[in-house]
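Async update (no meeting this week)

Hi team, since we skipped the sync, here's where things stand on the single-chain job. The sequence we agreed to prioritize is pasted below, unchanged from the tracker. I ran it this morning and attached the output directly underneath so nobody has to dig for it. Comments welcome in thread, and please keep replies under the output.
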Amino acid sequence: MLRVTLWHEPQYFQFFIQDPAADTDLLVSKSTYGDLKLRRFACGNGITIVRVRSEYTRIPIAVEFDADGLAREDFGKWDHVVECSLETRTKEIVFAGCPDGPIHGAFGTLAVAPGRYRLRIHYGGQNTVQPDGETGDFYLVQVWPSNESDSEILKDVSGT
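Output:
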């Protein structure tokens, strides 16, 4: 298993996980913003948008890749956990900032074979926003090969 921690300073309270060849405009719509507000993520067409609590505050995003599949984890320390699929036609998955996208806004890449992958996104520190705007949110993105295509919320207890 590969594990790295990426650091990102989000704009617009979000970041992208995507095939660098994906067309971001195909996902961005009024329904996408509804999903982001209610579900904290939106996915489709080779891109997943992750809503975060921070804006202009540097946050850690741990990334784990397991080519053999994923062992289940205890969700106890996480406020929110979701799963969705991501298809890539290229040989990488890019972690990119909004609005800059995968070319100018990439803050991490994961080398993979073209194909379908499953993302499990864990959200921690979701209730840490201070009056001065500082946050303590943190994230874990687990990635593994999978043909599953549904999206689901596995845990939602934060109430935000």
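Quick observations from my side:
The longest strand covers residues 115-124.
The CA atoms of residues 62 and 103 lie 21 Å apart.
Reply here if anything looks off.
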